[in-house]
Specification:
- It is a single chain.
- With 404 residues, the protein is an alpha/beta fold.
- The chain folds into 3 domains: 4-146, Orthogonal Bundle (Globin-like); 154-257, Translation factors (Elongation Factor Tu (Ef-tu), domain 3); 270-392, Nucleotide-binding domain of ferredoxin-NADP reductase (FNR) module (Rossmann fold, 3-Layer(aba) Sandwich), CATH 3.40.50.
- It has 12 helices and 12 strands.
- A 6-stranded antiparallel β-sheet has the order 4-3-6-1-2-5. Strands 10-9-8-7-11-12 form a 6-stranded parallel β-sheet, with helices on both faces.
- Helix 1 (4-12) packs across helix 7 (116-146) and helix 2 crosses helix 6 (94-110).
- The radius of gyration is 22 Å and the shape is globular.
- The two termini are 42 Å apart.
Amino acid sequence: MLDARTIEVIKSTVPALEVHGQTITTQFYQMMFKNHPELLNIFNHANQRQGKQSAALANAVYAATAHIDRLEEILPVVKGIAQKHRALGIMPEHYPIVGQNLLAAIKTVLGDAATDEIMDAWSQAYGVIADVFISVEAEMYQEAEQKEGGWRGFRRFVVERKVKESDVITSFYLKPEDGGEIATYQPGQYITVRVKPEGQEFTHLRHYSLSTSPGHAYYRISVKREDAVGNQPAGVVSVHLHDKVKEGDVLDISAPAGDFTLDQSKSSPVVLLSGGVGLTPMISMLETLLTSSDKRDVVYIHAARCGSHHAMKEHVEQLTNDHADQLRSYHVYEAPAAGESCHKTGFIDLPWLQTVTNNNADFYFCGPTPFMKAINHALKKWGVPDDRIHFEFFGPASSLNNEG
């Protein structure tokens, strides 16, 4: 435990971290990868280039600093990060490396303001924070391994089927190469795929939401091909999966993880909203809701650029027909092609949303960040309480607050 003086010193650095947090974390990643390039086999290179990872870490460091005397208050955030760490294979021996480079980055950015007392306090505080993560992650590794059909680390899965769902999304049906059982999961969770595309120096890991309900003998992920757009390069892993991975090929997969899950203890109505490939966890939730015994009312709304980008349209329409007493579904196209029909053209907005559902439901949504910001803003304006708003980001967690 930290003494009162150490806590006081750490809290005194909160204003500096608020101003310089992302500069510190950007410097941290540069230093760490220079000193330990092998860690590039774990971290998402695209998130590094785009600054997403450094921004997410800056937010986490700021939160930990502000709550250093009551870390239990940010335990949900810790657990969400720890889920991703477990899925990526972060181990206790990585934490001293992170600590050494993080402290060096703080000293480099803050300069003379980072006194010996401040650096000593930060060293102690990092030790406490690291111990919390290591403890939480140890439990998660153990749980993943001991679950029926579970495993530790990565396991080899065969691509049994590869199915094109739209012009940009393809599904991969995965079965374990060893022929054993697979672990069940909560609707909304993801698995992590590890690949080493031809010509790449390092392995690449990506989280992909499971896009069907639990209970099958396979896992299914539905991957959007991320082509180069403007200054943004093509997605290394998604292009590899689309172009190079064939039926019969083998992929390394870590056990299901993630804390964005359907709360199955409730009986309230559910509204599922997805944008683009954000439909993947929503389909898993939708199928689960329709096969459960409590028969909760469900509205599913999907937004896509146009019909050719709309994955699993026929599947959802069939579910709607088969469960007409429980499910209503709608699709919104930003720019429908000639002859394409949809329930709304343009974007999902609050006036339209109010005509197809009501605000006494639990709302789950996933999609590109602009989509989620718009949905979150609409729900808050409508008066939906925070405890009935549930969402997941692609990649490192960000914020949906203060958006118009």
